[in-house]
Amino acid sequence: MSFTVHGLPVSQGIAIGHAHLVSHALLEVNHYQIAPRHLEAELERFDNAVASVERELLGLKAAAAAAAAQPHSEVGAFIDLQRMMLEDPVLVEAARAKIKEHHYNAEWALVQQMESVVEQFRQIEDPYLRERQADVVQVVERLVKALLGDPGPLPSKRRDGHGTIVVAHDLSPADTIGFKDHIAGFITDIGGPTSHTAIVARSLDIPAVVGLRHIRDLLRANELIIVDGTRGVAIIDPDKSVIEEYLLRRAALELERSKLKRLRDTPAATLGGEIIQLLANISGPQDMAQIKETNADGVGLFRTEFLFIDRDTLPDEDEQYEVYRSVLKAASGKPVTARTFDIGADKTLAGNTRDEPNPALGLRAVRYSLTEPKIFLAQLRALLRASAHGKLQIMIPMLAHVDEIEQTLALIEKAKEELREEKIKFDEKLPVGGMVEVPAAALALGMFVRRLDFLSIGTNDLIQYTLAVDRGNEAVVRLYDPLHPAVLKLISGTIQAAQRAELPVSICGEMAGNPAFTWLLLGMGMRSFSMHPARILEIKRQILRADLVEITPKTQRILKLDEPARIREAVEKLGV
Ligand code: PEP
Ligand code: MG
User: Fold this and answer.
1) Is there a single domain that holds both residue 12 and residue 144?
2) Spatial separation of the C-alpha atoms in residues 452 and 430, rounded to whole Å
3) Catalytic residue selected from 18, 20, 484, 508
4) For a Cys-Cys bond, which of 85, 132, 158, 260 suits 537, CB 3.0-4.6 Å?
5) Cβ of 458 below 6 Å from ligand 1
6) What is the pTM of this model?
7) Are 315 and 285 spatial neighbours (Cβ–Cβ below 8 Å)?
8) 237 CA distance to ligand 2 centroid (A)?
9) Is the CB of 346 under 6 A from ligand 1?
10) Better-scored residue on pLDDT, 88 or 24
11) How confident is the model at residue 66 (pLDDT cuts 50, 70, 90)?
12) Backbone φ, ψ for residue 106 (5° rounding)
């Protein structure tokens, strides 16, 4: 029976395909009993999984040791802890005994034993030891995944010509990247429009709807689904006529896109002739083709952390250098702003065992980098070496404290010193800038302005931290309001402070790629926008229609309003 569910539109476009249900390894293990004649084989399957996880952990440890500052880094210690758990009779031996004595299948035995061990950990008073229950869960998760094996590649096209739609409770940015070559679209139970998974979906141009609550449980494998990523709906088991209507709509969208393509070589000038810089947000060299297609003015945000996630070992300095160099080469002399890795919150490294109660407020971005100076230094050296091949700038994420910049600048200096000694070329004048994405930075900009060469406003986090709204949580998405007067004040205050200090300022959060906000941002004085490349031509079309003489005074009046409904109405009327 056909039905429609409404969620949040996070990545435009229409996809039609068959459901591929992604399961949560631990919640969905099968429970069955093993026939006596298969018992030996089941025990062998169990032992093989333990051995394979042991190998996996050893590999992770070697990678962490190669990258860590001290020989006994925290990451290494956590991996050791998990290896010890693998050898712990209370977990692994006891689970094995359950298979042998009760004939449970291996996954079931493990999950049962995990639950009883976790319960014992819960009773412990010492908070450090109590928290180790998370390690038990992670080890068992690894074992269950090893038992279930790799599901193998997804078919990108079925016999009926439709693709595959991934249906999941949640997807991490790494999962999304992993699926990218095989799927037409995805839908999830949870997630918000500026979660990194949504951002990845947009940059990969995969239609997606999130926040569909219980969709994962409502669907059967292979059911046909239409994902309308523009309206935020998923239509399950659509009638023939609905499919036809959506095929027409998809064709109309493609036509619209091809019309926009004609703007590729038109300069991004307002009606008064002011040229606006349009830059692209990228996550790796694979995105550079889109820069050529849209003729962007360069890269305003290279999210380098995507080189670090979705893999078992960290990239070393040489590997990073090659990647940065290839991005600069593809940029053909246009500027490239590389953000140092923003690990933490929803972007975690494989094998990460750090369990933080509030990861978005925890060891994230520059905070994380500064606790891993060896990994950070390797990245800075790789970036500096690459700077000899183009116009590179380095940008530091999530600054809030002055010592974060000072320590980072000192590390950059150290990297430069080493390279000079090694007689390796780099750009001595390479600009270093910072992201304004924590309200504290926007409100106390002086200390940043004095030490940095440029600023970029990260509205995704600025909104999250100003309004105390988790950007990835659909339950509070209604409160995630880019037009909140507090947010507008912080953005416009940052632009003004940068202008007074004659410091270049740009905007690289998702607001920059939303045509509903282009005139408002222009009216605040913003002249440089960085967004996912798929949005550049649409924003250019808005700029071509913008009359700054009209928009600027109207925007200044909007900034004085503090009634949300009036702000919204005035923003809609801007330029009309
Ligand atoms: C932002 O916070 O606005 C930003 C551009 O960075 P990210 O989305 O990667 O956190
Ligand atoms: Mg951010």
Assistant:
1) no
2) 11
3) 508
4) 260
5) yes
6) 0.74
7) no
8) 38
9) no
10) 88
11) low
12) -60, -45
